[in-house]
Amino acid sequence: MSSLEISSSCFNRETKLPLSPPLVEDSAFEPSRKDIDEVEEKSKDVINFTAEKLSVDEVSQLVISPLCGAVSLFVGTTRNNFEGKKVISLEYEAYLPMAKNEVKKICSDIRQKWPVKHVAVFHRLGLVPVSEASIIIAVSSAHRAASLEAVSYAIDTLKAKVPIWKKEIYEESSSWKGNKECFWAPTQ
């Protein structure tokens, strides 16, 4: 049979859907403990603050694992408006030693609260044009609930605790913005 021919025996003629493959009893292949151990991998936290453009694909690839059925992402981008003003770009600054330390604490907290495999937190510094990513958070876990909850916790906690400052640059002016979630922000 050539590679272009399809055997009709593997299709149900009424629905044209593939049937389940036959079950084979007493299969000769059973994974050994060695095979299972080779799949084990060490959990990792990847934290990066950079002036370079962020790539959703690159960050998500860092957390993919054969042990996980879920990868959840949060991507924060620069929008083109704020309170009726046209935003040209955002500019971010951070106190890096403290920012990195706080993000490490967030990763540790996530691991205590949810059964996750890998965590990646990338934050852009400097100018971020409209529609580009300012932050990407990626978390992998065996099941979706853990990674979804962990990503939500990560962005909320990052905005509240990590010393990152944002300047909105408008057509005619600019303004430094504090995160309303931030514990050191003045109450109004």
UniProtKB/TrEMBL annotation:
Substrate binds at residues 143-144, 159, 166-168. GO terms for cellular component: molybdopterin synthase complex. Its main location: cytoplasm. The keyword RNA-binding does not apply. PANTHER family: MOLYBDOPTERIN SYNTHASE RELATED (PTHR23404). This protein is produced by a bicistronic gene which also produces the small subunit (MOCS2A) from an overlapping reading frame. Belongs to the MoaE family. MOCS2B subfamily. This is Molybdopterin synthase catalytic subunit. The gene is MOCS2.
